[in-house]
Amino acid sequence: MPEVISAEHAVAAAVPASMAVVLVRTANVVEGESVLVEAASGAIGGYLARLAKERGARVVATAGAGKPVPDADEVLDHNDPDWRQEVPEGIDVLFESVGGPRAAELTTKLVPRGRILAYGLLSGEFPTYSVAALAGRGLTLIGFGGLDAYAEDVAAARAEALGLVAGGTLTPVLDRTYPLADVAAAHARVESREGVGKVVLIP
């Protein structure tokens, strides 16, 4: 771990930043593309937005009303039930973390041969896609929901991710720290979804 990173920041960044590095690399985001990042005020989403921006992409992001996404060119309120209708057309890469039955609506916003990387289920339900709709437009769907397929990649990316944090490219998203004795309060904070970033327990 680079010495310039505190233990709390390293804990907050290690896994989500490593996952973001692998996701962006797998998506092969290139300069000039348009990227949609769902839940971009969260840990992984925020890192995805930053890394895509570093590669020269235009970033469209979703977040709760009032939650900041510093690296987004456009932010949509994902608490609005019709936010998907506001997504501009011409999206090259979709980082899908919400899931649910309405996820497929976004396929019409992607360019032919666009890429979808499904890595989260914030809605609690898997996204449902029509194979015909994907194949008909040449869309690529990559599942990233479980770590089994990418565990080695994520582990290998950890040093790079922490190096990006140490160098200032990525900023750890730390909401609050709690002593281990206050684990119940920490859990309540996470469940409230009021914070932005990771909640870290201090032994």
Helices and strands: which structural class?
Answer: alpha/beta
The radius of gyration over CA amounts to 17 Å
Number of domains: 2
CATH architecture of the largest domain: 3-Layer(aba) Sandwich
Strand tally, please?
8
Largest sheet geometry = 6 strands, parallel
| Distance from first to last alpha carbon | 18 Å
Average pLDDT for all residues = 91
Shape: globular
Tell me the number of helical segments per DSSP (H or I, 4 or more residues long): 7
What is the CATH homologous superfamily assignment of the largest domain? Answer: NAD(P)-binding Rossmann-like Domain
Quick take:
This protein has 203 residues and is an alpha/beta fold. It contains 7 helices and 8 strands, in the order H-E-H-E-E-H-E-E-H-E-H-H-E-H-E. The protein folds into 2 domains: 147 residues, 3-Layer(aba) Sandwich (Rossmann fold); 31 residues, no CATH class.
Structure write-up:
It is a single chain. The chain is α/β, with parallel strands linked by helices and 203 residues long. The protein is globular and about 55 Å long. Strand 7 (174-179), helix 7 and strand 8 (198-202) form a beta-alpha-beta unit. The strands form two sheets. The chain has a six-stranded parallel beta sheet, with helices on one face. Strands 7-8 form a two-stranded parallel ribbon. Helix 1 (7-27) crosses helix 2 and helix 1 (7-27) crosses helix 6. It starts with 6 loop residues before the first helix and ends with a strand. The protein has helices at 7-27, 43-54, 83-86, 131-136, 151-156, 158-166, 183-192, and strands at residues 34-37, 58-63, 74-77, 91-96, 110-118, 140-143, 174-179, 198-202. The model has no long low-confidence stretch (mean pLDDT 91). The chain has two domains: 7-153, Rossmann fold (3-Layer(aba) Sandwich), CATH 3.40.50.720; 173-203, no CATH class.
